[in-house]
């Protein structure tokens, strides 16, 4: 387990992806800072206008921007690589020669992907907070309900937020793990996982498919805003967790079915 | 070696999930057994429920056959701040709101939008509204409630000699229920149609059925909580439509007093705060407006115009006719030239993208259909007719009846 995580985080690619994610809030903050002339145009992603008044909003804006595309993309790369990457390198059979067992290997791989989800989200949130504090004034934060919370209260909510987004991405990680067991070409698994995230979001945007929406793993992705209300709406947190647990169960068992029956040749 | 059993969990898990979600909805359908109540008793019960404190989540859905106005406004748009389009937006599509109520004097409603929220907070005689997307707050101070009550009472006493019937004003819940029933009796059947479960609580169903054949409204049902008398849901059925045309109800409710701090609102730093004029200020303003420019280009609705709206018919098929010129007042251009549209229904603000305005306009143009003598909008529950000479007719009846009324 520990060695798997060190391998994951020793990779240059992992750090490049985390660096790219960290770049999002930095880019947003710098652009807003440079172009800030006091005129709120009312366009662009949510919270963007609030940045000039309070730097802590950089985290939120960055998270809103990162959730639909960048986070699923990086998760797709990590989750898609889990099994197929080892197979591609020819190291999978050596891993299985050791008395580790296939279930354990799957679990360890999945735990690594889940940890990456949390680190990636936390990176966006924390760099957002730091760069925002450096470039803009910082003060009590206005919640969506119009109430304000102090900085300490805000950081508690940010932590919850990072947790929420991590949980949101667990379903996608499970899908990625399953796809990864199907192939020995990691790039294929990565692309398929990232593409699935995009497809789910497109389906979620079509009002004609409303009956399907509660079943899409992307359904609650933007529900993190419910943590920014006063009092906090916990139902979306619970619904989201339940939905993601369902995806983990389905695709986890599928991955087990596939991985435990397949002949490992490489 | 047969390893196929290892696929077994992958088959069982989805089956279990589907079974769980199906049985979950089936359990919620069961009807509770409650002691029978007459409509009169139930209405009294509702009237006593106004002192309750509770909080919960309300889901609202409507199938009016209107285009979804919410789609016309961009995610970062600001047009929702003006009351007309906000009301339209709330009437169409789906919404989730949280409601906190503490007796009759304090309440807070939060409309939960995606990445945004709209709040209305009522605390004694103060009303705040807040829109997180535009970061705008609006503050209204109502005249002191007790003072108004006392004033009304003295007026009532003064006029008692002249109008003895005023003495019979309903005071108690029982009287209120009686008056309500007497008022709507001639053309409405009021019954307790049964029981239901709303937000995991047992409820009585109060059913109002119009006996007027010409109205579009099929029936209105109100779910009343069996323990507290608080209305938990409303559904309006249109004639000839299977799904409810308008539906709002609690999806969960908690009868504990909400946190008192929720009703205290201080606008956040950086928000645009508008102080609404008090009643006196409004009156003087209105006077100035009517004296200054009568008729065209007045922003407010016919309050300032010389003619009053006329009412045709009664009961459920009542048609309200706004006089000539009101279409222009509201920014509706009468006639059938390609320019005609609902310009100011969505208040056009200088900052708005012209494309958005054009898009919304086109959508509303699409909703209006060409009819004999004007243009009309037909929804499941009501119709609107804008005649070529600039009158506006509104009623819960079919368009043909509006046309007939307009030609009288």
From TrEMBL, chain B:
Keywords: Signal. Gene3D superfamilies: Lipoprotein localisation LolA/LolB/LppX. Residues 288-311 are annotated as: Disordered. Residues 1-28 form the signal peptide. SUPFAM superfamilies: Prokaryotic lipoproteins and lipoprotein localization factors. InterPro entries: LolA/LolB/LppX (IPR029046), Sporulation_related (IPR052944). This is DUF2092 domain-containing protein. The lineage of its organism: Bacteria, Bacillati, Actinomycetota, Actinomycetes, Micrococcales.
């Amino acid at each position: 387990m520990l060695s798997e995580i060190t391998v994951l985080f020793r990779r240059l690619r992992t750090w490049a992806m985390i660096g790219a994610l960290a770049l999002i809030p930095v880019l947003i903050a710098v652009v807003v800072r440079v172009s800030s002339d006091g005129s709120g145009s009312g366009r662009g992603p949510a919270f963007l206008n609030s940045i000039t008044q309070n730097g802590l909003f950089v985290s939120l804006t960055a998270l809103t921007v990162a959730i639909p595309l960048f986070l699923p993309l990086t998760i797709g790369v990590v989750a898609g690589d889990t099994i197929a990457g080892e197979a591609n390198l020819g190291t999978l059979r050596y891993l299985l020669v050791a008395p580790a067992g296939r279930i354990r290997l799957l679990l360890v791989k999945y735990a690594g992907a889940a940890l990456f989800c949390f680190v990636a989200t936390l990176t966006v949130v924390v760099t957002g907070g730091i760069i925002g504090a450096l470039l803009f004034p910082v003060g009590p934060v206005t919640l969506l309900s119009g109430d304000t919370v102090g900085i300490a209260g805000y950081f508690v909510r940010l932590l919850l937020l990072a947790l929420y987004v991590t949980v949101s991405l667990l379903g996608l990680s499970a899908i990625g793990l399953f796809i990864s067991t199907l192939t020995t070409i990691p790039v294929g698994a990565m692309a398929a996982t990232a593409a699935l995230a995009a497809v789910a979001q497109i389906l979620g945007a079509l009002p004609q498919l409303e009956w399907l929406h509660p079943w899409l793993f992307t359904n609650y992705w933007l529900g993190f805003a419910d943590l920014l209300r006063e009092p906090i709406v916990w139902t979306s947190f619970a619904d989201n967790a339940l939905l993601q647990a369902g995806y983990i169960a389905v695709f986890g068992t599928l991955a087990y079915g596939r991985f435990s029956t397949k002949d490992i040749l490489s | 070696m047969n390893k196929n059993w290892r696929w077994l969990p992958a088959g069982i898990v989805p089956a279990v999930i589907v079974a769980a979600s199906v049985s979950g909805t089936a359990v919620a359908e069961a009807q509770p057994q409650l002691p029978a109540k007459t409509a009169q008793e139930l209405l009294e019960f509702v009237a006593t429920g106004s002192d309750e404190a509770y909080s919960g989540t309300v889901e609202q859905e409507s199938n009016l056959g209107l285009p979804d106005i919410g789609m016309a406004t961009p995610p970062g748009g600001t047009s929702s701040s003006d009351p007309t389009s906000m009301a339209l937006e709330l009437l169409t599509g789906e919404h989730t709101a949280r409601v906190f109520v503490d007796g009759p004097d304090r309440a807070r409603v939060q409309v939960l939008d995606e990445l945004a929220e709209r709040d209305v907070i009522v605390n004694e005689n103060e009303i705040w509204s807040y829109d997180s997307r535009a970061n705008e707050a609006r503050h209204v101070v109502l005249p002191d409630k007790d003072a108004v009550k006392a004033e009304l009472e003295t007026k009532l006493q003064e006029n008692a000699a002249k109008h003895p019937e005023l003495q019979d004003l309903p005071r108690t819940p029982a009287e209120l229920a009686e008056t309500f029933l007497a008022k709507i009796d001639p053309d409405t059947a009021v019954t307790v149609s049964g029981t239901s479960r709303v937000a995991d609580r047992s409820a009585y169903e109060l059913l109002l059925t119009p006996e007027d054949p010409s109205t579009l409204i099929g029936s209105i049902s109100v779910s009343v909580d069996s323990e507290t008398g608080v209305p938990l849901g409303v559904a309006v059925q249109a004639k000839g439509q299977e799904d409810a045309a308008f539906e709002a109800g609690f999806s969960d409710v908690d009868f504990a007093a909400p946190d008192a701090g929720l009703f205290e609102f201080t606008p956040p730093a950086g928000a645009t705060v508008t102080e609404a004029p008090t009643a006196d200020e409004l009156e003087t303003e209105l006077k100035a407006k009517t004296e200054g420019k009568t008729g065209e280009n007045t922003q407010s609705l016919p309050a300032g115009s010389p003619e009053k709206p006329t009412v045709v018919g009664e009961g459920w098929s009542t048609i309200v006719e706004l006089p000539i010129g009101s279409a222009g007042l509201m920014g509706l251009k009468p006639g059938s030239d390609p320019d005609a549209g609902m310009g100011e229904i969505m208040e056009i603000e200088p900052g708005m993208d012209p494309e958005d305005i054009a898009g919304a306009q086109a959508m509303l143009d699409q909703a209006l259909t060409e009819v004999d003598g004007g243009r009309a909008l037909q929804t499941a529950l009501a119709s609107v007719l804008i005649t070529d000479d600039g009158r506006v007719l509104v009623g819960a009846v079919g368009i043909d009846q509006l046309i007939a009324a307009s030609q009288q």
